[in-house]
UniProtKB/TrEMBL annotation:
GO terms of biological process kind: defense response; response to other organism
Source species: Ambrosia artemisiifolia
Keywords of the record: Leucine-rich repeat, Repeat
GO cellular component: cytoplasm
Domain Disease resistance R13L4/SHOC-2-like LRR per the UniProt entry, residue ranges: 50-131
UniProt name for this protein: Disease resistance R13L4/SHOC-2-like LRR domain-containing protein
Length: 226
């Protein structure tokens, strides 16, 4: 498919929209200097077990493929900052994901997840968590350890309750979106720390409006359907 000798020194490897049907070859582990791996919109089903050797990776985009399992070796990518694997067939995430201490963005939307692992609370740098359109019933209490979390989006799931200390523990949280979940606005507004969260949220959008940033009709919505 491609020459590993040619790609040896690549920092950025992109084959999105290539209708790539073969799995990622094991030889990709030789690209130890690679920082960005973009393989969105293909037909990839499996990731190589030795991908943990790609120690320089900062970004992985595997959106819109057919991946059903993430290897435990994913946790070895300690420099990873952005992981987007939406629109795949994931049913679980590996516990080793908690080893990604530099991860800023995790997007696992539109998969088949029923839960998020407790270890996700060890992704201490995480600022944005997107897990829309899954079958998640519960937000793990460990999410309260994510003190840098700014945005939590779980639209179109089965979430019935939120960890009681989420709003008080995650003091940088500015956006929560829980549309189409079996949780009411009254429940959300009765949580400890709601007023402080509301103040942060409004301050964020006030700044955007002052900067002439356009926001959609849901821009000032807490994100919980009535």
């Amino acid at each position: 498919m491609f020459s590993m000798n040619v790609l040896w020194s690549y920092l950025h490897f992109s084959l999105d929209h290539a209708n790539m049907t073969a799995d990622i070859p094991e030889e990709i582990s030789k690209l130890t200097n690679m920082q960005r791996l973009i393989l969105a919109d293909n037909l990839i089903e499996h990731l190589p077990m030795n991908m943990g050797k790609l120690q320089s990776l900062k970004l992985i985009n595997l959106d819109q493929n057919r991946v059903s399992i993430l290897p435990d070796e994913l946790g070895q990518l300690v420099r990873l900052e952005r992981l987007s694997i939406s629109g795949n067939r994931l049913t679980t995430l590996p516990e080793t994901i908690g080893s990604l201490r530099n991860l800023l963005l995790l997007n696992v939307s539109n998969n088949q997840l029923k839960f998020l692992p407790e270890s996700i609370g060890s992704c201490y740098s995480l600022e944005e968590l997107q897990a829309n359109e899954n079958s998640i019933e519960e937000i793990p209490s460990s999410v309260c350890n994510l003190i840098h979390l700014k945005s939590l989006s779980l639209d179109h799931n089965k979430v019935k309750q939120i960890p009681p200390s989420l709003l008080t523990a995650c003091k940088t949280l500015q956006n929560i979106s829980l549309h189409d979940n079996p949780i009411s606005m009254d429940e959300f507004q009765s949580m400890e720390g709601f007023q402080e969260f509301e103040a942060r949220r409004k301050k964020k959008f006030d700044k955007q409006i002052d900067s002439n940033v356009m926001i959609g009709s849901k821009g000032l919505d807490e994100g919980v359907d009535l």
